[in-house]
Amino acid sequence: MIARVTAGDGSKKPLVLAHRGARREEPENTIPAFTRALRQGADGIELDVHRTSDNSLVVHHDADTPELGVLANLTVKEIKLSRPDIPTLEEVFAACKNCLINVEIKNMPTDADYDESNKTADLVVDLISGLDRQDDAIISSFNMSSINQVLKLAPNMATGFLVSPVFDFVSALTLCQDNGHGAIHPFMSMLAFDEGVEFINASHQFGINVNVWTVNEVSDIEHLISIGVDSIITDVPDTAIKIRDSLSS
User: Fold this and answer.
1) GP-PDE domain: which residues (predicted)?
2) Confidence tier at 10 by pLDDT (50, 70, 90)
3) Which of 108, 195, 220, 249 sits at 20 to 30 Å (Cα–Cα) from 185?
4) Across 65-84, average pLDDT
5) What number does CATH give the domain 5-247?
6) Helix axes 144-153, 169-179, angle to 10 degrees
7) Got the DSSP string for the chain?
8) Whether the predicted model's global pTM rises above the 0.90 cut
9) What are the residue boundaries of the structural domains of the chain, listed by start?
10) What torsion, rounded to 10 degrees, do the Cα atoms 166, 172, 173, 176 define?
């Protein structure tokens, strides 16, 4: 499932992944946002997960909400009583079939639910393996330890290292290679300069995909497609799909 789309001329074009769903038209990280993006033609979705006190996984960007506090301190039932719009990861997989699901594990030391033991990674692997949806998923994180744990438990599961501009691309790529991760997820500004093509080529030489976030401007989408990224993670999947398809027609 982790591949590019084949264009009519046999060339490859990047996947379009909806960042937290079609979040400009529906509440982000909700079933309506995800299903709308897929109806628009997105190849997949990107979402964020946090664990709960009863060892379930809920889809939400932040570790807490103003009305509930830290989600890791609550059961799914307690969360649903106040926020029925917050889906579990299992509910998302049930609603989203035949697509790629990029599951971002939120587990940085600054997060309110930070867990050095990587319990969230354990739960993600258990759920996806139990659903037999390994081929439909890629697990990403800014925390290298979290995705290392994923590979330890499931060596064949696709993983990606999220990288912000404070990180050196070459160092990040080396970390990906050394730890066996098949994708690097850089912020788009890291590929904005002439070196972007070199970075992508180097990644591909190592067999590492480049899935870039969060790309919303037409000029940026066009540029990144032209230099050969493997996936565009975007808030505007409908726009990105039109641009991609027009460039490959």
Assistant:
1) 14-244
2) very low
3) 249
4) 98
5) 3.20.20.190
6) 20
7) --SPEEPTTS-EE-EEEEETSSTTTS-TTSHHHHHHHHHTT-SEEEEEEEE-TTS-EEE-SSSEETTTEEGGGS-HHHHHHH-TTS-BHHHHHHH--SSEEEEEE---TTSTT--TT-HHHHHHHHHHHHTT-GGGEEEEES-HHHHHHHHHH-TTSEEEEEE-TTS-HHHHHHHHHHHT-SEEEEBGGGGSSTHHHHHHHHHHHTT-EEEEB---SHHHHHHHHHTT-SEEEES-HHHHHHHHHHH--
8) yes
9) 5-247
10) -150
Residue 139 pairs in a beta bridge with: 103, 159
**242 vs 40: CA distance, rounded Å:** 10
In angstroms, the CA 61 to CA 65 distance is: 10
Q: Cα(16)–Cα(23) distance, rounded to whole angstroms? A: 14
Contacts of 84 (CB under 8 A, 6+ apart): none
* Residue 148 CA neighbour count, 13 Å, CB half: 12
**For the chain, what is the mean pLDDT?**
95
In the chain, pLDDT over 70 holds for what percent of residues? 95
Q: Closest Cα partner for 31 from 10, 59, 56, 9?
A: 59
Compute the distance between CA of residue 192 and CA of residue 176 in angstroms, rounded to an integer: 21
The 10s digit of each residue's pLDDT in 154-167 is 999 999 999 999 88
Beta bridge partners of 88: 58
Q: Which residues are registered as beta bridge partners of 183? A: 160, 209
- What are the catalytic residues? 19, 61
